[in-house]
Write the structure tokens for this entry.
Amino acid sequence: MGSTVKIIPYGSLGRTISVSAGGALDHPLAGARSLNDVLAALGVRAEQVQLAMVNHRAVAVDTAVRAGDRIALFPREYPIFADWLSYRRPLKV
């Protein structure tokens, strides 16, 4: 498990986080933090993210993330599936 979360950014978010296409970032995390806190630490602005998934589940930004979690971030320019529409809400940072 370790003391990191794995961040997988898609599209333009990879450039924002400085991760090459198809790559991932192991981000240090001490204790549980909100996804909002993790985004802020990465320098990701709320309006850049259309959908966030933790451990393959679409989540709201106030969701707690813990070491060992996998976080996928999808930018505004990415199309999303119809069943994810309820998770498209503005992020508050």
